[in-house]
Amino acid sequence: MAMKDSEPDFRPVLNITIWILAASSGSFLGLRIWGKHQRGRKLWWDDGILIAAWICLLLSCILQSVDTHFGFGQRDADVTSQDILDMTRLVSVVAGFFLVLAAAWSKTSFALTLLRLTIPTKKCFSVRGMIWFAIWSTNLAIAASGVFQWAQCWPLDKLWRQWLPGQCLRLGIVNGYNMFVAAYSGLMDITLAMLPCKIFYPLRIQRDEKIGIVVAMGMGIFAGATSFMKIFAIYNINRIAAGPEHVVVLMILGTAESAITIMAVSMPVLRTLLMGRDKT
């Protein structure tokens, strides 16, 4: 069934935006790996986890694009059959789960990169402790969100076949927790982005080097801002009259959050490559 002319189609916006984000973050990641190879540096845990995060981001983008082919981004009434509607819901759940993994792992890579830039001394003990706290608390909070995503309905397939008999947690409970995770995740993003100021300010390196590294890592602030924006998107979905545009916005913001984090983690390596020095 074709969409009526009076009803907007959000699928082109979703596809264009997520693939720009995937391509941009993939380019930054590729340059990061190439830069380390050029400088004769081996890949470390933060690199491996960052690669895994981008793969999850890529898989989510593929699934989101496939889902738009079946009708994701349209109103339910415009989808041609119940089976296709069920399929779009299932694919969107899987795509969302990959975004959860991408968010958790990209933030972990960000934190691990900071750990490598701090010397384990008494002065840096509090900084390293804060980083480890951010790693564990953020991963636990996001992991619980992933569990909620799959365990909110019983039987399981009622999650995408909403017409089946069974029960689901109230949408307000699930979205309420997801709003908390978005807020906490954004707070940790901003905290980690500000830590380079404390790490590098006391060091005896050139001022422009300090500023460059801090600004590069400070891109994580934008990831935190994106995470905060997800709070409002989730709130809109929780409303009774929420339309497909609100779900599309949430998927775009979820994609942007991980993509920006991947670019932020890659910035210091790219900068040192351009400057002809290797600080990581």
Automatic annotation (TrEMBL):
What sequence ranges are listed for the domain Rhodopsin? 31-274
Q: Record's Gene Ontology CC terms?
A: membrane
- Asked if the keyword Transmembrane belongs to this entry, the reply reads yes
> What InterPro entries does this protein map onto?
Rhodopsin_dom_fungi, SAT4-like
Regarding the membrane, this protein is recorded as: Multi-pass membrane protein
Q: This protein's superkingdom?
A: Eukaryota
User: Where is this gene product found?
Assistant: Membrane
Write out the transmembrane intervals. Answer: 12-31, 43-66, 90-117, 129-151, 179-201, 213-235, 247-270
Keyword annotations: Membrane, Transmembrane, Transmembrane helix
Zinc recorded as keyword: no
The record's similarity note reads:
Belongs to the SAT4 family.
Q: What is this protein called?
A: Rhodopsin domain-containing protein
Give the source species: Podospora australis
